């Protein structure tokens, strides 16, 4: 945001991700970030009156078993890609393959200015055909969905898989990865990239300092203390984008309190934060890093890439991010840095094991409901979920997709990404993923703002909990909130 995501603003996220999540994205670079800033909320009112987009059948070809959506040869496809941590070379490779197979020419736009470039087009009823809606300037998915601007992707997901026509597309995906794109029970965004979130460190630095990767929060603080004594920051965080420090806070809540603590937040529980022991211990643990001076100096005033670059320069032991981080930092990471992923260390008496990680899908791709070339957009997304295109993505973007076994074994991943693969295997079924970031962008933004104040020591943990709960309670009063629920 990653990916945002700033998850993918390199998040994408990717990265802003985040999530997303998010890369970077939020992810939301995905994750994607879903920031409901003033521009995003003005979009809410502005896009309600958009019209147009009827192509009067000019882009409709003849549907068949091999052409389920009726792609028309010679038509054009308008593609907009968030050019963050994952770049956009993968999309150009996809577009070349699409033209070769279908004779459809793509109009490609790679940008980090998603809202700036696309808000006027959505308002005018002239959106692109397919969009990677990620980054700092992501248009929040919930805002688009509420205004009927997104296509229900059921047709794509129920279509035959490119690799096995006897299998539906949805049945070829890693279980649970469609959840992040749900709005009111419908999948309206395809979060394409399999993302993990957590802590990151340099294997080289840790070997030189004799540090062990911590499994408990006390051990994490001990490394931060030793780093501080040696003139190194303990934790770098992307101060201008508090999405990232929420990776630590929210991971600690879920691992301390278990899945019930996570679901309480997604389900807008009146005791999601205030009255939650897990939330109290988590925010107090992160604030201890601030109180003891373990933050990398200046990190509160830095963007995600600025903070990450200083981390690459060994000015901090740890940083929080999603798995778009390695690709986002290719230009600044020393060749022998040996980037490593680490699950969030445990607070005492945590409900989930150390190996548990926040994992799921990030980097949301959408098809606007008023896209001019819907047949080609649907087929393009179906081909994204083929092994050929998934492998193309892995080669170009050094990341995994939501397709099960979707990457050819001869593709060699970089050290950081490989470490996320190993962490995912170690986690097994112990993975979790918040959905409030996609469902409630305004609430997400309010919690991020509170985290920004916390890390700058302008508020204390008790006030953070109060502000977070206020955001939950406000969201719970929205009648539409009852349409989203997780069991």
List keywords for this structure.
alpha/beta, 10-stranded mixed beta sheet, 18 helices, 487 residues, two-stranded antiparallel ribbon, 12 strands, 13% strand
Describe this structure as you would to a colleague.
The chain is an alpha/beta fold and 487 residues long. Helices cover 38% and strands 13% of the residues. The protein has helices at 38-46, 89-102, 114-123, 141-146, 154-157, 203-209, 217-229, 243-257, 259-266, 277-291, 304-312, 325-328, 374-384, 387-397, 415-427, 436-439, 441-455, 461-476, and strands at 76-82, 105-111, 130-132, 182-183, 186-187, 190-202, 233-236, 316-322, 339-342, 357-366, 400-401, 431-432. Strands 1, 2, 3, 6, 7, 8, 9, 10, 11 and 12 form a ten-stranded mixed beta sheet that branches. A hairpin with a 2-residue loop joins strand 4 (182-183) and strand 5. Helix 8 (243-257) packs across helix 10 and helix 10 crosses helix 18 (461-476).
Q: Quick recap of the structure?
A:
This protein is α/β, with parallel strands linked by helices and 487 residues long.
Structural class: alpha/beta
Number of helices: 18
Note the beta-strand portion. Answer: 5-15%
- State Rg: 21 Å
- Biggest beta-sheet profile: 10 strands, mixed
Enumerate the spans where pLDDT stays under 50 for 5 or more consecutive residues.
1-53
- The rough form would be described as globular
